[in-house]
Amino acid sequence: MRLKISLLKEPKHQELVSCVGWTTAEELYSCSDDHQIVKWNLLTGETSQIVKLPDDIYPIDLHWFPKSLGVKKQTQAEIFVLTSSDGKFHLISKLGRVEKSVEAHCGAVLAGRWNYEGTALVTVGEDGQIKIWSKTGMLRSTLAHQGTPVYSVAWGPDSEKVLYTAGKQLIIKPLQPNAKILQWKAHDGIILKVDWNSVNDLILSAGEDCKYKVWDSYGRPLYSSQPHEHPITSVAWAPDGELFAVGSFHTLRLCDKTGWSYALEKPNTGSIFNIAWSIDGTQIAGACGNGHVVFAHVVEQRWEWKNFQVTLTKRRTMQVRNVLNDAVDLLEFRDRVIKASLNYAHLVVSTSLQCYVFSTKNWNTPLIFDLKEGTVSLILQAERHFLLVDGGGIYLYSYEGRFLSSPKFPGMRTDILNAQTVSLSNDTIAIKDKADEKIIFLFEASTGKPMGDGKFLSHKNEVLEIALDQKGLTNDRKIAFIDKNRDLYITSVKRFGKEEQIIKLGTMVHTLAWSDTCNILCGLQDTRFTVWYYPNTVYVDRDILPKTLYERDASEFSKNPHIVSFVGNQVTIRRADGSLVHISISPYPAILHEYEQTMWACLAAMAVANRDMTTAEIAYAAIGEIDKVQYINSIKNLPSKESKMAHILMFSGNIQEAETVLLQAGLVYQAIQININLYNWERALELAVKYKTHVDTVLAYRQKFLETFGKQETNKRYLQYAEGLQIDWEKIKAKIEMEITKERERSSGSQPTKSTGLKH
């Protein structure tokens, strides 16, 4: 990934540019010490002066009023706040009219920021005061007052806290009075800029010590850069929280959210005092010390799946490379590409107006449909369908482009959803609640309605990351999640009245992923990489869970690694320095998952072949062959081992051998009976006549069989032996009972003389 820089030959401003802000993805406003506010149209390349401010107003910071969340009509911002060196902030319309000027601070107003809902404005100044104002510019409160200038300020994701600078310190202060304040030393020099992202909840800071740093919302350090040559004058998060940009003297840097650098550019800009990301997160604008406004497009993003590699080469062009045969396809789009995802043999691309769905089998004919709202912030894929998240909602589509559902819940904010807080499987959508972070909402994918009895999943602690397993039946669907204590839990998705168990799988887990081909889970624990080959073991026998794990040392991945993907038996991990490490795990457990039915069937056949009917019974039960399980059960209850052997042979279809075993053992009645059971009437009568026993039994069963089907006897042999014979069922039953008793006694008493019995 890199930045494609565009810079005009001659600057449009005469003095340094102090601040920039986007209204749409193609329109930008810039303010300068030359008192001009200039509008830039990136589609036409035109610039126009909106207004020339009075000579005593030197602009310092600009922030557009946020678009109404979830309202599709307002596609662009209409008013912005401009802070200036004269101690005032000004509310200025899109057309350049100053709607209101408010005396705010003694000395310059160094920064001003709307909260996410647009209900409040925070300003900070050289006088060390932090003030909260209403939407119309009425003072609500002075949040804090300190002795040093406050250079930068940012709202917390929930608009309930404010982050601001105090010399070398960072301070997070909640709006509620008497709430606990968090303060820590962040830099060795004065902190010049901060930013706090609403999606990933991470904080950026930049200082005169020439470093930029990444923090979590508890003030714990996640990344610290090497010192640069010059102070870091600006930092800014991309809207989705996956990237951030850093500005310094003649320097523009693109970084991953974990801190490592994708690209470093050295444009001729002077110091970059302010950075703004476009609404769709595809480009950056920088306010430069030499009067320029620098624009940079994020290009050469890369997506990989199995043997395919897709690269965004230009704003509207992708290159697909099949690494097996080096075949290359070029994909052209009408509008600029905003988001893309490659998984499950499909590439899903969202542009500013449309969504394209490509199959990896055919890159020439994508399926295209129009988007409800342009800016897609997240694409998630499952085997059967994919999910799009934009400012208006969450939408599920099939790979044929058919709209399936749009789940909703109270207080839903789609602008803060990411891959850690939303998960998708073939039948389920899981979304972590932002208002109460202990709650996970579960929806049926096909309808968008809440799962089961409509109850959400509630945990005792705040949840950080969620992931649904991808294979198996809906009733067996499981969700794994990591809570704020870094404990990993698993529970069932289907919830009907009864409280499902939430079971702990591991501790100190930082990142997790399910395999896309079977329900195997992997995670990075404190010092090791762990694979749970069968996580459901915790529901069956927790004692053997350690025996179902694969563990290896994770020190090679350094600090804060992240699992990127788990495809087949290959896990891809990104280290803190940005390098990718590929780990192959044993393929055999995955094969066991995939071919479970096949393996049970093979085991059943092997068990019968080796006369192990106990194992055979279990194996047949596993593949749902109930009639065979019942037959095996009846075999186990037979009195003699010769009878058992004969029935096992019959089970395998060896009727002749079964009969021979019984006759050799002197079990003539049993030999006759198996022929009766198989409706082998000719042979049954032949044996009865030959051994002069149970002729009446054979005739009785034959008569009963014919009566059942309403038929008359036509067989000459049966007619011959039935002549003048009266069937007495009481007598026949007594004879059969006697045969069984005789066999039982014989088998219990004939163990030592086994050979004689067979000879006889």
Automatic annotation (TrEMBL):
Domain IFT80/172/WDR35 TPR as annotated: residue spans: 599-745
Spans of repeat WD: 102-134, 184-216
Bias (Polar residues) ranges: 748-760
All residue ranges annotated as the IFT80 second beta-propeller domain in the record: 300-588
Keywords: Cell projection, Cilium, WD repeat
Alphabetical list of InterPro entries matching this protein: Beta-prop_IFT80_2nd (IPR056456), TPR_IFT80_172_dom (IPR056157), WD40/YVTN_repeat-like_dom_sf (IPR015943), WD40_repeat_dom_sf (IPR036322), WD40_rpt (IPR001680)
SUPFAM superfamilies referenced in this protein's UniProt entry, alphabetically: WD40 repeat-like
Family annotation (Pfam families): Beta-prop_IFT80_2nd (PF23335), TPR_IFT80_172 (PF23387), WD40 (PF00400)
Region annotated Disordered, chain positions: 741-760
Name under which the protein is recorded: Intraflagellar transport protein 80 homolog isoform X2
Organism: Odocoileus virginianus
Encoding gene (name): IFT80
